[in-house]
UniProtKB/TrEMBL annotation:
It comes from Massilia atriviolacea. This is Aminoglycoside 3'-phosphotransferase. One of its GO terms (biological process) is response to antibiotic. InterPro entries: AGP_Transferase, Aminoglycoside_PTrfase, Kan/Strep_kinase, Kinase-like_dom_sf. Belongs to the aminoglycoside phosphotransferase family. Gene3D superfamilies: 3.90.1200.10, Phosphorylase Kinase, domain 1. It is an enzyme of class 2 (transferase). Keywords: Antibiotic resistance, ATP-binding, Kinase, Magnesium, Metal-binding, Nucleotide-binding, Transferase. It catalyses: kanamycin A + ATP = kanamycin 3'-phosphate + ADP + H(+).
Amino acid sequence: MSHSSPEQTCMQASLPTAIGATLAAYAWERNKVGQSGASLHRLHGRSDAPDLFLKHGTGAIADHMTDEMTRLRWLGQFVPVPSVVHFVRTPDQAWLLTSALKGKTAGELLASRPELGPAIVDALAAFLRRLHAIPVEACPFNSDHTVKLRLARQRIDAGAVDVDDFDDERAGWTAEQVWASLQDHLPLAPDLVVTHGDYSLDNLLMHDGEVVGCIDVGGAGLADRYQDLAIAWNNLGDYGEALPDRLFLQYGLPFPDRRKLRFHLLLDELF
């Protein structure tokens, strides 16, 4: 596994006037990690101002960033997330400027300190319980499997699914094969909670043994709890068999629903 820096120094990007003045005298680094389709820069180096992150996208990515902005502002009432410093939207572009959270991602910590695996999993489970405890009646966003299936179908028809990125279990499959397998798992009786939408190791920031915030929340909303559990469980599988099992135990599900787990792993392949 590579431990190279996920960032590289770069020149300042072209910016709307409303944001440009805010970012004077910052040093810029482009983040090379992630699959959101947006460009992401870390802005740092000012002793008189905090570090920031700037995300930019066009087309459908700009739409997703608009979703992320509204969810950041809502989720911040309940769990730590980056604060929205500035947001600019034009018909075909979006710029989202947010505060930088302290800490390292759970993925970075596991890669560099594998002996901390059990403690990291316990922290991930605790934060997920906190997220899933947000009252469902307070959530204005619907991200359940019916919504995601509709979006997945659109992505398949547009040829936007990266079949080369499928998990080893589905290596060589087509997107249509994944779609057909999903149908075999329906109907699904959802146990709705407020979900992150992409509860991966790269989207959870940790400091002093605790999760101190989550990022990339554009898909947050009401969905079955296995939407989050499946992604975290799958990520942890890269670090052995014990950590995924520990996640369910610490979360409070010693006997996970394997059918729901398989369904959400299949669904995630299409995004």
